[in-house]
């Protein structure tokens, strides 16, 4: 590597004082969340420590994004609390946070050796240590999605940009916070002119401070280069924040940066109702969107929506069997697939006329076992039977966990037409109508996600069945519906009927 020095100007003198002296008291060291691990590194020629904090509710059957961050000793607690907030509000995916500890950040995070910093210039080894040793360690130990972010502040932001230009294959997204692009006569700004062509499909967020610092840090120069040389497929954004210091900008910047990087995740939460179901040829079925997106596109032939696909605003109608896909198209690589729903050709289901032999409510059978998914109930012994008329009454059962119940009866369609059914449950639930499985919400999970379907019912009673199991924790079943000429809402038990068994 070349050996160089900083050209001393009044502006650079101020910056130099900021980074060399202020960083010793940059932020108070924090208690790092998570667990410490030691990795013996050939790139760093010795042992290095990393800190790993798992998201709330981590489990072995879910895949998690990973964010690798620098300077965790003063930044990780803040970053973890920010991620927790964004994850709990569906703004970002549940993410494993990996802090890379640097005993000498001047050495680890700078790309070249300069006279004023005797230990500087070891960033290439440090970047390879993270990309070739830390990443494989994390991916072998935890269930990861393959979507990774590299984040750093100040010299850490310089290192992040260096990794982005030198080894873009290591990460999908790069978050550079008030980065020191002034370093070594704006070396990375010059490097960007040559290397940006290799960053196709990546995501880059850079944030800094408005005013003289924006130019002094070299961010203004980097923005000019990005405008001139960034490939069309690079999704990048630079934000300058008013009335912030080098320290205070961290929170705003990381919130915006994580939100920008997580754009594809938020797109993956697009909901349409119904998600699947049956359509009668020639009778239009309306599919409704649940959120407002400016560039929401859809297809009805099973292909992935792109920028040339039709725009979806509030709703769309189909009149035949369809593979319906919805997506906000992106130029990013490694994006999540479109949200898909399969609508098969169905038939009008005939109803039964209600008579006095039907009474309000549903019949139930109760079972006990260590259920982890819905079983074959024909192989189990029934512990208890009864009827419910006002609700599922899960709390009335003898056990609070490790039980299952099957509810049978009839749903009353008061008019002929498409009927939309939706449900959420904690834990697993299946919904059948006319002995056809219409919604499968099996498995161990919380009740945060709704599942929906549609079927054409003629006026009258229609046989239904709900199969439910509870593993542990909360027990919940919530039902919703929309019928012809009725507003959508909760499905009340006054629409359920059953025939009491003869004694």
SSE topology:
Elements: E1 3-4, H1 10-20, E2 35-41, E3 46-53, E4 64-70, H2 72-88, E5 95-100, H3 105-109, E6 113-114, H4 123-141, E7 144-153, H5 155-166, E8 173-177, H6 183-195, E9 203-209, H7 212-216, H8 219-229, E10 235-241, H9 249-261, H10 263-268, E11 272-273, E12 277-279, E13 285-289, E14 297-299, E15 310-311, E16 315-318, E17 322-327, E18 339-345, E19 359-360, E20 362-368, E21 384-388, E22 403-413, E23 417-426, E24 429-433, E25 436-441, E26 451-457, E27 460-470, E28 476-482, E29 489-490, E30 496-498
Parallel strand pairs: 1-6, 4-5, 4-7, 7-8, 8-9, 9-10, 12-18
Antiparallel strand pairs: 2-3, 3-5, 11-13, 13-16, 14-15, 14-17, 17-18, 19-30, 20-21, 20-22, 22-27, 22-30, 23-26, 23-28, 24-25, 24-27, 28-29
Helix pairs in contact: 2-9, 5-6, 6-8
| Main CATH class of the largest domain | Alpha Beta
Runs with pLDDT <50, length 5+? 1-26
The share of residues in helices is 10-25%
Strand percentage lies at 25-35%
Which structural class is indicated by helix and strand composition?
alpha+beta
Kindly report the name of the CATH homologous superfamily of the largest domain: Alpha/Beta hydrolase fold, catalytic domain
Count of discrete domains: 3
What would CATH call the architecture of the largest domain?
Answer: 3-Layer(aba) Sandwich
Provide the residue-averaged pLDDT: 92
CATH topology of the largest domain: Rossmann fold
What is the overall silhouette? elongated
Number of helices: 10
Radius of gyration: 29 Å
**Spatial strand sequence of the major β-sheet:** 2-3-5-4-7-8-9-10
């Amino acid at each position: 590597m070349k050996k160089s020095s900083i050209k001393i100007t009044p502006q650079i003198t101020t910056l130099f004082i900021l980074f060399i002296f202020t960083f010793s008291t940059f932020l108070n060291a924090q208690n790092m969340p998570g667990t410490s691990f030691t990795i013996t590194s050939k790139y760093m020629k010795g042992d290095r420590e990393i800190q790993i904090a798992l998201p709330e509710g981590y489990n072995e059957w879910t895949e998690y994004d990973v964010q690798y961050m620098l300077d965790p000793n003063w930044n990780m607690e803040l970053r973890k609390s920010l991620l927790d907030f964004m994850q709990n509000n569906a703004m970002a995916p549940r993410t494993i946070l990996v802090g890379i500890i640097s005993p000498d950040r001047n050495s680890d995070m700078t790309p070249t050796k300069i006279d004023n910093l005797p230990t500087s210039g070891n960033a290439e080894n440090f970047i390879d240590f993270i990309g070739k040793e830390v990443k494989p360690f994390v991916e072998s130990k935890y269930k990861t999605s393959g979507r990774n972010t590299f984040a750093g502040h100040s010299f850490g932001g310089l290192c992040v940009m260096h990794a982005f230009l030198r080894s873009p294959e290591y990460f999908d997204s790069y978050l550079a916070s008030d980065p020191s692009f002034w370093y070594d006569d704006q070396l990375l700004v010059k490097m960007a002119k040559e290397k940006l062509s290799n960053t196709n499909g990546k995501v880059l967020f850079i944030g800094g401070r408005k005013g003289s610092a924006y130019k002094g840090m070299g961010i203004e120069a980097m923005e000019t280069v990005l405008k001139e040389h960034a490939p069309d497929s690079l999704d990048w954004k630079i934000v300058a924040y008013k009335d912030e210091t080098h320290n205070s900008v961290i929170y705003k910047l990381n919130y915006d940066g994580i939100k920008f990087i997580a754009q594809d995740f938020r797109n993956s939460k697009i909901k349409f109702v119904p998600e699947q179901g049956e359509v009668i040829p020639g009778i239009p079925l309306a599919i409704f969107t649940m959120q407002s997106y400016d560039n929401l596109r859809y297809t009805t032939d099973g292909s992935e929506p792109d920028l040339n696909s039709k725009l979806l605003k509030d709703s769309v109608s189909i009149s035949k069997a369809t593979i319906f896909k919805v997506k906000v198209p992106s130029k990013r690589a490694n994006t999540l697939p479109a949200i898909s729903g399969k609508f098969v050709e169905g038939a009008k289901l005939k109803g039964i006329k209600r008579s006095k032999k039907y009474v309000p409510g549903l019949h139930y059978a109760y079972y006990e076992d260590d259920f982890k998914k819905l079983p074959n109930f024909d192989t189990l012994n029934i512990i208890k039977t009864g009827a419910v008329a006002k609700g599922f009454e899960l709390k009335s059962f003898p056990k609070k966990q490790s039980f299952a119940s099957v509810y049978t009866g009839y749903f009353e369609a008061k008019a002929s037409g498409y009927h939309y059914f939706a449900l959420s449950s904690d834990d697993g639930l299946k919904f059948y109508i006319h002995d056809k499985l219409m919604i499968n919400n099996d498995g161990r999970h919380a009740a945060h996600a709704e599942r929906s379907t549609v079927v054409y019912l003629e006026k009258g009673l229609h046989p239904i069945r709900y199969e439910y199991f509870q593993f542990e924790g909360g027990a919940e079943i919530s039902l919703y519906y929309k019928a012809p000429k009725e507003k959508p809402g909760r499905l009340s038990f006054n629409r359920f009927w059953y025939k009491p068994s003869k004694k």
